[in-house]
Amino acid sequence: MSKIFPNVAFFKNLIGEFNIPKPFKVFLNEEKVNVFIFFKFDYEIVNTKEDANLIFEIDQSLNEEAYRIIALDGVIKINYKQPSGAFYALLTLAQMLTKDVLKNFEIFDEPAIKTRGLMLDISRNKVPKIETIKYLIDMMAKLKMNHLELYVEGFSFEYKSFSQYLEEDGFITLEEYKELETYANERFIDFVPNQNGFGHMGDWLAKKELNDLAICPNGFYLWGRDRKPTTLNPLDDRSIELVKKMYADMLPYSNSKYFNMDFDEPFELGRGKTEGINVEDVYLDYTLKAYEEVKKYQKIPMIWGDVLVKHPNAWDRLPKDMIFIDWGYDAGYSFDKHAKLLNEKNVSFMCAPGTTSWSSFFGRYLDWYENIKNACDAVKKYQGLGVILTDWGDFGHLQFLPVSYAPIVYMGLYSWSLKEGSILTVRDYLNKFIFKDQNKVIGDLLLDLSHYSRYDIEYGGNGSKTFYTFMWASCAIPDTKYKNESPIDYFKNKMGTTFMEYPKFRIMRKFLNLKLDEIDFIKMDNDLLTIEEIIQTIKMLKMIHKLSLAYNEGVDLDLRIRYMEEVVNSRESFINEQKRLWLARNKSGGLQSSIKNIESFMDFASETLKYLNDRGDSYEEIEL
User: What does the pLDDT average to over 132-147?
Assistant: First the structure.
């Protein structure tokens, strides 16, 4: 039999074979034209079963997305309950039609997990073009995924009531939003609205007229840096009034019965204007106010669980129809532990793993694999409602979209079937269906590159050590502008002992150069863009590693100076290429804000070069 993606629940070969009909003569119980969206074989509709060789019949005994296919002696019969089942049946059937002759067979299939979703961050600088999102929707549909959210914080959605805050070409218009919803729904994907209204409100609170709504209007300190305000004051009635206006600008235009209200990471809660409060009670009180507003739009609210997962005794106060989303993005995150407790408390829940594309440049293979698998297994084991794979854009959304393809593919394959060994077929799916690489190279290439961090000096949670080197370098000059600390000392203090060791540097360099050589063997008809994005990202990694090595005083000074000269001299060409590649898939709004991170990194590289040139110390040279 042909390899089927995702794996089907039951397959049986039957005796006999027949020639594939040309064209297919299709008999339908009901009108369902859109189930043929990806069916590329000739067909015509006939009025009677007797004239048909592809017959659709409703079977009410099946589950909603289930289907059965029986191919026997020239006739193919598809049983389904809902149109989505017929759609998925045709996706499977199309994979069987690879030759002129088809062996008789029987297939029964249904998903192991009800909701199989993706959440795409469109708010950290990068707002994809509509064509980019449609491409992702098609990818999801072919993987039999059925839930999509576009994460909104700030002004990446066209808030009609706040048009004065919108950046040109930096948001999804309402017309585009409705167009995407129709496109997704036609492919049996629920297009679920999503917007934050508690934490992650930094762009709103940056407006002078709204700043007083912040818990800490002057900012706060977190994770080694001074931060601008991000969290609405839940004790101020004006906060919920603002959120009500935001909801009114989005929710009436959505046909989904769900809404993800987010409410994650209210970092300042318990500080500033809320110092001394009972965090649990205040968080829930504010959440329930927003819940009541959401219910006015006949939506089922969903909420991130990072605050309430620490307060299980408060779960009894959650409305029974609110869906708790437990999220975590490293291999060791305890989905099983949390899902068990949520099940025992009768809380409706989903789990949300991550692609790990953010804060890593190429993703983190071992983390996304283990993270997705653990989430799916926990949902199945403890009767959760589904899994939503998240794809974030922290710190300027510097990663390119194809970095997320492998984890998205694995999510689709595994969440449908829970088949052991599904990870081993990801490369095949990438090569055959995503990139159509005739030499079957690019799938392994992307998987290998998503595992580059194994050569870092140590493991980094929620990001790679290479990324954190870039982050601290980019922050060094801005963070010390008004402080009595030099950017060089700041960087050294933040990095501690994690500067790159020379053996690791050389291994990493050889590894990346090998991957560059492999690109020559890729044979695709029309996807030069992905190759250019891979090359650009490898250049980024090499620059970061050279900067890290510059602070290893066991390495020859002249060599470190030469490497830093290479980084500094590449500034203009690298930034120009980053801009060009960004605009190929994304809108222009937010680009300059993202580029500022790279410019700050380059500024610090220049500062580092000056620092090395000014050094008069002698260093112990090592054999090169």
Answer: 98
Torsion of CA 234, 238, 244, 247, to 10 degrees: -70
**Contacts (Cβ under 8 Å, ≥6 apart) of 525:** 436
The rounded distance, in Å, linking the Cα atoms of 123 and 172 is: 10
In the block, tokens 């299709």 appear at 26
**Long-range contacts formed by 175-180: CB under 8 A, 24+ apart:** 176/130, 177/253, 178/253, 179/130, 180/130, 180/133, 180/134, 180/137, 180/150
62 pLDDT tier (thresholds 50, 70, 90): very high
Q: Are 130 and 179 in contact (CB under 8 A)?
A: yes
| Pairing status of strand 67-72 against strand 386-391 | unpaired
Residues 6+ apart with CB under 8 A from 271: 215, 216, 220
* Whether the predicted pLDDT of 527 surpasses 90: no
**Nearest-angstrom CA–CA distance, 231 and 270:** 11
The dihedral sign for the CA sequence 220, 223, 226, 232: negative
Which tens digits make up the pLDDT trace of 71-96?
998 999 999 999 999 999 999 999 99
On whether the CB atoms of residues 265 and 248 are closer than 8 A, the answer is no
- The pLDDT value recorded for residue 620 is 45
How many whole angstroms separate alpha carbon 460 and alpha carbon 462? 7
Q: CB–CB of 509/544 below 8 Å? A: no
User: Is 232:198 a contact under the CB 8 Å cutoff?
Assistant: yes
CA dist 247 and 194 (Å) reads 10
Q: Which of 541, 555, 533 is nearest to 508 (CA)?
A: 541
Tens of pLDDT, residues 1-60: 568 999 999 999 999 999 999 999 999 987 766 899 999 999 999 999 999 999 999 999
| pLDDT (tens digit per residue) in 330-356 | 999 999 999 999 999 999 999 999 999
Res. 616: pLDDT tops 60: no
What single-letter DSSP state applies at residue 434?
A: I
d(CA 375, CA 95): 28
